Amino acid sequence: MVPGTRRMNVRNPSGGSPEIDVDAVIIGAGFAGLRALYELRDVVGLSVRVIEAATDVGGTWHWNRYPGARCDSDSIVFCYSFSRELQQEWDWHERQATQPEIKRYLQHVADRFGMRRDIRFGTTVNSAIHDDRNNHWTVTTDHGDSIRCRYLITAVGPLSAALNPPFDGLESFEGDWYLTARWPEKPVDLTGKRVAVVGTGPTAVQLIPVVAQSARQLTVFQRTASFVLPARNQVFDQDKRREIKDSYDEIWARAHQQSEGLPYDDSDVVFGELPEAEQQRLLERGWELGGLHFVFETFADWTIDEAANTAMADFVRRKIHAVVDDPATADLLCPPDPMAKAAIGHHYYQTFNRPNVSIVDLSGNPIEEVTRSGIRTTDGEYEFDVIIFALGFDITGGVDRIDIRGKDGRSIREKWSAGPRSCYGFAVDGFPNLFMSSGPLSPIVNGPVMNEHAARWIGRAISHLQDNGYRSMEALPDTVESWVKEVAEEFDGTALHKAADGGSQYVGANVPGKVKAPVLYTGHTGNYFARIEKVANNGFEGFSFT
Predict the structure, then answer these.
(1) Which helix (H) or strand (E) holds 138?
(2) How many CB atoms neighbour CB 265 within 10 A?
(3) What number does CATH give the domain 162-227+341-392?
(4) 140 CB contacts (<8 Å, ≥6 apart)?
(5) Where are the alpha helices (DSSP H) in 15-173?
(6) Tens of pLDDT along 480-492?
(7) Tens digits of per-residue pLDDT, 407-424?
(8) Has this prediction a pTM greater than 0.90?
(9) What are the residue boundaries of the structural domains of the chain, listed by start?
């Protein structure tokens, strides 16, 4: 059923309870929000209102429009699989699609399925308060709207709460400064400018090579070096695009089983069982294939076997020294820690051979303040015309920065004061009929693939409620506690646990004042999908119903 256009605060629009205005409110109109809207409206048959802060669909891909922005995942699975017609009519033009192309894709989806009529753009959710007596949510916005709904779905994703510059003196800077996660819609001309980029995470890795082409002088401020794998991007010709469309059933079957939702084959090779020459051959093969083949199609045990991890990390360090001409610069670009995660680069290391590019190591020389003319570190001051901050995200912030209050008025921010708590990344005890798409403690996985599974699971949960005459559904505290423990145990058993000693966003260590705790599930995604399917098939065991 595709409902007609509805106005905000129209009482009882779907013939249901007079206590509510719409059946469901979804926060966010990016990949997760659009997919949830389709599922709840067109499959389950609910009346739905989507609240979106931006002026258009896209979510992360609306705001993150900095130079060089593109997906790290293969574009052929950085999309939806729910509609065969959609995947046959859309052409991806590159292996790693650019931000403008991804944005056009989401606009096409919204238009094709008539989604815009159910989205309120340019609107921010201020609060969502659960009414324990009447069992509904009241959502208020910055426009003064008050919407009552039975089901509340957060679809904000892990990359929506950008970190602002924490440096003193920023207001005194006389040049221009930008945040990559809130890049202006109008093009920014950096030609002939002295530019600083603060940060060397995945965003900066994409940004730096593009800025270097136009800036007179580019200075990169690095606190922690990243492992950067070559993208090996390619443009798809007509024959390749036809081949992709003809193979989509196989492509999706692989992606939904693979450990990070990609169209790869997870390696079953054990590092220690191979002679050194074969180990190096596999590493070289992965490096040349590009993208994330290097981490998923080399050794099955690279995240848990120290020797395998060291071999991969040392391999990348040798590549850095082979590419970067200046040995001192190469040393700075080599991460000293185990290989816990990797960014995808488009000529990133080669950029540091340009005469107009330099790097400043912040590990023992932190930024003390932003001055009128630039940046001052412990060792000295640098003058710039433009400063660009690429500081990452608060992964749980998309949810806990909203004033969401469940039973007895307790906020989700209070609930998560010692670290995020959820059941499979979908639900929180004490918050009836609150569902999260790709919420905290869901897997590290290609986003759109996770969004597909999340939308279907949430849709099945609500259908289960309605089919059985229930009014609410809530995760049991023991179920949540069990999942929190399992996430922590999985995390501690991998190379990622080393990130807890640094500033990794995977433990919230990049957010001042946050308790360090795993924020994402690091187990095998294919097994996770099978598990949540089993939970649904068994009548949503681990949840209570009213």
Answers:
(1) strand 136-141
(2) 12
(3) 3.50.50.60
(4) 125, 126, 127, 128, 129, 146, 147
(5) 31-37, 60-63, 84-89, 99-112
(6) 999 999 999 999 8
(7) 999 999 999 999 999 999
(8) yes
(9) 22-161+394-475+526-539, 162-227+341-392
What is the C-alpha to C-alpha distance for residues 496 and 512, in angstroms, rounded to an integer? Answer: 20
| Element spanning 204, H or E | helix 202-212
Contact 268, 300 (CB under 8 A): yes
Q: Could you give the residue ranges of the DSSP H alpha helices within 93-225?
A: 99-112, 202-212
Strand 176-179: give its sheet, edge to edge: 176-179, 386-389, 194-198, 217-222, 357-361
Q: What is the pLDDT of residues 276-307, one digit of tens each?
A: 999 999 999 999 999 999 999 999 999 999 99
Architecture of the domain made up of 22-161+394-475+526-539: 3-Layer(bba) Sandwich (3.50)
CA-derived radius of gyration, the chain: 24
Residue 516 confidence class, pLDDT cut points 50, 70, 90: confident
Give how far Cα 288 sits from Cα of 133, 231, 279, 311, 471, Å.
61, 9, 15, 17, 54
Give the CA count within 13 Å in the CB-facing half-sphere of 62. 18
By the 10 Å C-beta count (0-12 exposed, 13-18 middle, 19+ buried), 476 is classed as middle
Burial class from Cβ neighbours inside 10 Å (0-12, 13-18, 19+) for residue 238 reads exposed
Question: Does 18 score more than 80 pLDDT?
Answer: no
DSSP category for residue 162: B
Residue 504 CB contacts under 8 Å (≥ 6 apart), including other chains: 340, 341, 496, 510
Task: Note whether 126 and 53 are within 8 A (CB).
Answer: no
| Cα–Cα distance, 200 to 205 (Å, whole number) | 6
Residue 341 near residue 331, CB atoms below 8 Å: no
Domain 22-161+394-475+526-539 and domain 162-227+341-392, same fold? Reply is yes
Per this entry, what is the length of the chain? 546
Q: At which residue do the structure tokens 């009882």 appear?
A: 12
